[in-house]
Inverse folding.
């Protein structure tokens, strides 16, 4: 049960409603009127809750669940307990996520501007925005409708952010144009100066960084992550890309659509990640590389060369994941033989 | 000498007082009335200062110290200069730390709420708290007695923090319950949204994160570290655990009591660290693992499997530290042979 | 073209002016009166723009450039198109950076203190400073002339920062003395408590951290980076050193002059980096080591022993870069042979 201090439950919903919301199919049309009050896990749910089976490790828990309803893939329908109502989906986790969003939507923005917020006269404010205490919005900045600006966040001169966004407390946006439905978590730094110098024995000479950060729609940027603006070209984050906490994105980087970058990953300047690239935690990608679409990079890998689309890479320097496994096995064997 | 702009010295103390404070034994009871005015190092201390010997690398400095008094282990008593008064302790570094705390305690909280702080009417404020300029405390939040909220920190709706805490400037607390005597350093982000999605070719679907962060007593959380709230269960940080700067703790992680996580470490979702686990700097722990009690993990290691209690692990993927040393030695030998 | 919402172009300048600014030599003195309006790349520049050639990969683009002028090294002068005016420099990238700074200088500080800033009566404020909304300046703190304090930044009691500095929005300075012309980017944490404890089975005992952070002139500190104050000695950052985003500097560390630390690097307590050390991204340096002057450390390396001056190191544990290459080649060969 989600703590009501922090999360407000909506509903109840009928199972018929939830089938539509979750883009799933009711196994028995007559169960469509069954009322569901909450989501839950396979093991703790009761008659008025809905759960799901995705990872087949949990098939036996599924077979014994007392949940009133479950989302399940077609192949697992027959494992269900007799009295459990089923929503059948080819992507049960996705369907369940959509259902959880229905029960626990992001809280609607409550329009209002706190009197302690500091907003430049020339800022353009969309309808229904909320600006929390101490937030600062600079000259000419533009905030889209229903966007929520958290407490003590700072939006610099001229930046734009689209509708239905969420800017976390204590975050900073400079030199950027941000799309719609973007979530920026607390402490993120967007549009900061890229790390560009002419290195020189007389002292390094700063190269002004004259680009922006351009962020698409439906992007998420984690807490305390940093995205530097471009040096001349822009730094670009594609639609639907999800960035975890403490991630560093260097100047001129271009992330495609629907990439996923896990915590503490770093992408060096001018690297290109095509669509649907996944970086597990603490990955490093060197500058000026191209990582092909759909590539998956294992945690703590360091990528030093461009990677063809669809690869699975691991290691430092990163190579094909299967070669990395072989190297590890070989070394382990050799060490054992020496004992 | 600590800079008096930043640190206020208390005292003087008699050596008898310091023996009690440091849980140590006066070697010569008659030295109990000796007055000590400050702490210092073995090489820079004078007659009215106290120093310590812990690391035996410094035995010769100890033998020549001019400090008026020293904390020392029983085995090293005989190395002391003739005129140095001794406090004997089985844990000299610990005893010394307690003594330093007496001379330089955390500054007492000066009660008061800055007029520019923004505090919701429904917030519950303990006696003697201090709220600095620009801090924001949300609806229903609760702050324990004598807790200090730093400038421009943001405490979200409904959070709780116990007595004698310190919340650093520009930090953010959301969806969390925090114990007593907890230090949260500037820029830390507690209770942010965990990184949970149903990944999908149509676009990743966010899974609402409905848990909290629950932090025990006597915990320390470093500057700009991030602790995500749980997905449904809570993220839990055990009593006495110390977390350094720029550390990432994923959703549902459970850290035991008295763990130590050095800078830039990352613990992925749903991992469990039992009591007294030590992660050196930049360690990565993969999701859903259990690290047994008392395990020590070397800097920059990547742990990919559960680890038995009491292990010493190193490498990526991490294994027994002695095997890691062997692998490195073997590789070095082989490279040499090829020259 | 830099976006005028974010960057104001100065100029135009004559090529004679730019030669002086860039410390370069006009190839044809008669071109000194040519007027230049902007900078640009080799491929997108027109008759009134100046570009440069540094990396010889771009020689063919240089040979076809339509830029009105170019900065170029003596060896490449002959590759220039006939009608391109040349500024000849032994360090073309440096010369160009100086020229870009002339066209796009850091915006001058507009003097003024926002009414929502909170400044202690005993703070010492230099002439022409700018303090943005919500910034907090503590008792006895001192801010040098023309220094800009960003919105919601927090400067603690007694800290000092010299003239012509820039303190980013939402950053925090405590227990530190900062030189002139220092740029601190948003969310940086300077002077936070070092990670010092006496570890103990009864619970770790905090050792008060009684030193400062001392930062030289012309230093840059990246967004969300953290620099802990010393334990007793100070943490020291030498003149001209450049620190990227999300970098961690432990207590008592001493960085020399003109070091460069790329993103997500971490330097553990009491390590010493001599002058002109370069750490690429995600480097880790263990505590109490000395890295000799001019050493270069490859990305993602973990340095576990002191390093002689002028080295190029790589790997975990780090060794000579050429040995690291050999180890990788050897392992790759062995794995192939096994197939």
């Amino acid at each position: 049960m989600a703590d009501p201090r922090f999360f407000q439950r909506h509903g109840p919903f009928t199972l018929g409603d939830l089938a539509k919301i979750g883009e799933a199919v009711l196994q028995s049309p007559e169960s469509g009127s069954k009322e569901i009050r909450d989501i839950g896990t396979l093991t703790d749910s009761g008659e008025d809750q809905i759960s799901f089976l995705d990872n087949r490790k949990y098939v036996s828990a599924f077979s014994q669940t007392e949940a009133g309803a479950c989302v399940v893939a077609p192949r697992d329908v027959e494992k269900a307990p007799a009295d459990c109502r089923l929503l059948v989906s080819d992507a049960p986790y996705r369907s369940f996520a959509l259902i959880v969003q229905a029960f626990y939507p992001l809280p609607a923005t409550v329009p209002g501007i706190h009197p302690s917020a500091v907003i430049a006269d020339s800022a353009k404010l969309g309808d229904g925005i909320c600006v929390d205490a101490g937030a600062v919005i600079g000259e000419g900045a533009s905030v889209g409708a229903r966007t929520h600006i958290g407490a003590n966040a700072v939006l610099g001169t001229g930046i734009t952010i689209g509708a239905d966004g969420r800017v976390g407390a204590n975050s900073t946006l400079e030199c950027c144009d941000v799309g719609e439905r973007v979530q920026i978590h607390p402490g993120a730094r967007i549009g900061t100066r890229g790390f560009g110098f002419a290195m020189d024995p007389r002292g390094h000479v700063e190269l002004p960084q004259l680009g922006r950060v351009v962020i698409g729609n439906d992007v998420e940027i984690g807490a305390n992550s940093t995205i530097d603006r471009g040096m001349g070209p822009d730094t670009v984050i594609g639609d639907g890309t999800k960035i975890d906490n403490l991630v560093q994105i260097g100047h001129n980087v271009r992330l495609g659509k629907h990439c996923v970058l896990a915590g503490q990953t770093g992408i060096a300047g001018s690297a290109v990640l095509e669509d649907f690239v996944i970086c597990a935690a603490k990955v490093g990608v060197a500058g000026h590389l191209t990582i092909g679409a759909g590539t998956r990079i294992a945690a703590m890998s360091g990528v030093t060369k461009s990677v063809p689309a669809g690869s699975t890479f691991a290691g430092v320097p990163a190579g094909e994941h299967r070669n990395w496994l072989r190297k590890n096995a070989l070394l382990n064997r050799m060490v054992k033989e020496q004992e």
Notes: The CA atoms of residues 189 and 226 of chain A lie 5 Å apart.
